[in-house]
Amino acid sequence: MFEPSLMQLAAMGALMSGSVIQEVPVDTPELRIARDGQDHRVEIVAGGRALLTSPVEGLWSIACDWGDRWPAEWRHAKPSSVSHVGEWTILEGTLELPDGSWRLRDAYRPACGVIQCTRRFEWTGKSTAQRCTLSVRYQAPGAKAQALLPGILYYGNPSGARSGKVPVYGGKAGEEAIFEEHRYPMPFACIEWRGEKGLSGAALHSIPSPAPYGHVQDQWWSLGVRASEACSELVLLSGPCASNGKRSVIKAVQPGFVDYGEAYLDVPPGAVIEKTFYLDAFGVAREGGAFQRPIRTSLRLFQPFSLHALPRFDEIVRAKARFARTRWYERGEVAGFKKFPDRDFLVLGWCGQAASAGYAFGVLAKGLGEEDLAEMARKSLDFLSGAAFYDGGFHTWYDIDKKTWNRKEIVSQGQAMLNFALAIGAGRARGVDTGRWEAFLRKACDVHADRILAGGWRPVSTNEAFFIAPLCRAFELFGEGKYKEAAVKAGRTYAERHVSMREPYWGGTLDASCEDKEGAYAALQGFLALYELTKGQEYLRWAEHACDVVLTYVVAWDIDLPPGRLRDHGFRATGWTVVSPQNQHIDVFGVLIAPEVYRLGRILGEEDLQRLAIVMYRTCGQLIDPYGSQGEQPQHTNYAQRGKVEDVYALRGGYQEHWTVFWITAHFLNAAAQFEELGVPIWR
Predict the structure, then answer these.
(1) Which H or E element spans position 512?
(2) Which helix (H) or strand (E) segment is 500 a member of?
(3) Bridge partners of 67?
(4) Would residue 127 be called left, alpha or beta, if left means φ above 0 and alpha means ψ between -120 and 50 degrees?
(5) pLDDT, average across residues 587-600
(6) How many CB atoms lie within 10 A of CB 329?
(7) What is the CATH number of domain 313-677?
């Protein structure tokens, strides 16, 4: 069993003292203790309606055995007394069993605009309570609800469901989606449902912790949602996990799920176990918007804004510039930054990001005091602007040995076009000859604007949202009206598809076909570009929505880790981003998202978003080695990016550092250049 980290203890202390309480949200929930004859029932009330209630069978539920791969022999208890001490409402009761009794207590109070509870379980039997499971359960009666579990499940994961590789949940009776707390970037479960009086939402927030006396190695509490004919239920369990119709499984490998043992407790006599959680219930203004409120609550609860012990901006930029030099290739007219260390390819967009450094070094060279980097940037863009075109766009891979361009990657084209647009703007300001770059960008924008404006344009996923920002930039650079027209059409198309969350943002990567942060980022980038171009308020609202989806992938707390590479480094997970429901590790892609989060925070006047953006950038510099390199996959949870694992309990805390494609370097430089242009002081 592992002790909480210092940062986790500090956060928990702040929560208990109330020191992080800030402004209270509108529609603040209320705690109500209702009576059914002699029995007491807990209700969370919003707008005069009880949206969450404790189960009819009792406030407390404990499983006393384990069978058929799941907790068994459930027993329930109801409160025998209710009292009030200061701001606290306290309910107490006892669960009598043949071998002893559980003394039970809930203590509720308003905190952070929601309802805080600390639940206490005390075992008074004379022998160990074996194979037991503790729980926290609150129900939305009559609700067939959609669920959002940050980083894991997005309104059912309808796009990823076809792959069979991701969690799915449709709110049908018998479905369960329950996962380890350390898997959650923001530890809450949220549901949204439509009733007679419109849309409602509810959330259960947890202060994550290992489960004492766990039978499984590194056993933590589990959090999620399950459905019955009568209700949707938000639940915490002391370890058991379930998904996709199977119990005692976890999403531990890229292709799907593996067994996760017998996660019960063996509780010795006299043991006291406490669990702190938060409850919220509220009306929802728009379909697909329930999750936005618990995001703000999570930020208030965990305050993920500390820069303590994180690398400085300037040392990160210098390290990445140093490593970028190791990927430089120049021979004859060919010049650029290679995707791989040992294979001769220049790759635009996605994992290669060859044009990204071309923009970044043009901006950063002076601050670095390395003016030759600006010349390398110019040479690289001069060469890349000669990329070969085909009917639907341009090729993104250049094979140096064969001297040929190949591959047709839509995501990569959009990203590369934005690199060129940014480089042209920055280059013009410095008096650089950008003629070749402009010719390339015009040609690319012509192809894609015409394609988007055609009547038959039907993008498969959110990946083509990456064209919106470069088309907006190109309109500002060249004044060509069809670029703006195409950007507006694409923006409206994606808003219609995604803002309701009937089809959550998805498909923004090349290596997964599911809901992902990259798809949400593509939409955020596009909607924000449209707002900055037009000042249309609907674009700003859409940008907020896409940003909030992105934030559900951002780790808001310092996940305590077992012995391993990450623990060796004193690793802080706060600010890193989970990849997708399919690829459940964290990575440094969030550094590229950070400037957009910062810009949106500045527009909205939300200082917390700006502070979080800086954390998102700087935290990802923790694992940079002396050469300026780092790997792609820290493992904060029970997950490995492969097909099979021999020991699922040995995964968490690991770090895969050998896949060092150039984007891991280029995104740091790209984002730093954007921060520099935004006026963020990155050199001190």
Answers:
(1) none
(2) none
(3) 70
(4) beta
(5) 97
(6) 16
(7) 1.50.10.10
The predicted model gives 367-394 an average pLDDT of 97
Domain boundaries, given as residue ranges, for the chain: 6-302, 313-677
Rounded Cα distance between 452 and 450, Å, is 6
pLDDT digits (tens, 9 = 90+) for 89-130: 999 999 999 999 999 999 999 999 999 999 999 999 999 999
C-beta separation of 656 from 633 below 8 A: yes
Residue 7 clears pLDDT 80, i.e. is over it: no
Cα-flanking dihedrals φ and ψ of residue 350, to 5°? 25, -110
27: pLDDT confidence band, cut at 50, 70 and 90? Answer: confident
**Nearest to 623, CA basis, from 570, 670, 548, 679:** 570
First to last CA, the chain: 40
Contacts of 395 (CB under 8 A, 6+ apart): 387, 388, 389, 405, 406, 407, 408
Angstrom CA distances, 613 to 433, 545, 617, 618, stand at 33, 17, 6, 9
Fold entry, domain 6-302 = Beta-galactosidase; Chain A, domain 5 (2.70.98)
Segment 167-185, tens digit of pLDDT: 999 999 999 999 999 999 9
Q: What is the mean pLDDT of the chain?
A: 94
